[in-house]
Design a protein that fits this description.
- With 204 residues, the chain is of the alpha+beta class.
- It has one domain (6-167).
- It contains six helices and six strands.
- The strands form three sheets. Strands 1-2 form a two-stranded antiparallel ribbon. Strands 3-6 form a two-stranded antiparallel ribbon. A two-stranded antiparallel ribbon has the order 4-5.
- The chain starts with 5 loop residues before the first helix and ends with a strand.
């Protein structure tokens, strides 16, 4: 189990959750947020380490900038609860590796509520990620190539999420509602969102 990268384990947990749901004592929205935030944070941290080394996991390079050396488990505090995070560790680097992204995330955990909602509502764009993880000096904490990799990975999951087979659920009620409102978290043109369709199976 430890040989499986954290991102893959989190993706498996999300898939299982979407299929099986949770027990009576759980909160569906809260659980989906925590898993989604964990998925997003972990993907960003992995890409930051990849960008630092200049190569993907298990990829070889003539220029050796260091090696991956497992993970250290940490927790991010959010209004919805603690989010387990696995910080990539590197060794044999010229300088001691320290994640700039993690330092930023610890002080800005509130931004993930917006990002996770957008991630499942319409998918995230490179602009969303770049604008969120830009520091006070206007510098993006991860490279454009890393942002592109993260966006592509999350977009594939979003497409799979929207096309997943729901025929196995015996729906007792369907609630339809629409919200039409201006939303602009970052600089740029206002965008509109239309929400929401809910199905109730009647099962606990």
């Amino acid at each position: 189990m430890t040989s499986i990268p954290p991102t893959e384990r989190i993706c498996e947990a999300i898939s299982e959750f979407l299929i099986k749901g949770i027990s009576d004592s759980g909160d569906v929205t809260n659980t989906l947020f925590l898993l989604g935030a964990q998925r997003l944070i972990q993907e960003l941290l992995e890409q930051e380490a990849t960008d630092y080394l200049g190569r993907e996991r298990h990829e070889r390079s003539d220029e050796n900038k260091g090696l991956r050396n497992g993970y250290k488990e940490r927790q991010l505090k959010s209004a919805e609860g603690l989010i387990p995070v696995f910080l990539p560790q590197l060794r044999d680097t010229e300088e001691t590796y320290s994640s700039k992204l993690w330092s930023f995330v610890k002080g800005n955990s509130d931004v993930f509520r917006y990002l996770v909602a957008e991630m499942y509502a319409r998918g995230l764009s490179t602009r969303d990620i770049e604008a969120t993880f830009t520091d006070e000096k206007g510098n993006c904490l991860i490279s454009k190539s890393a942002v592109s990799e993260v966006t592509e990975s999350l977009w594939e999951e979003y497409v799979a999420f929207t096309k997943r087979d729901l025929s196995g659920f015996e729906v007792a009620y369907i609630f339809l509602d629409a919200v039409y409102e201006p939303m602009r978290m970052f600089k740029g043109p206002k965008e509109r969102r239309n929400l929401v369709r809910l199905g109730y199976t009647g099962q606990r």
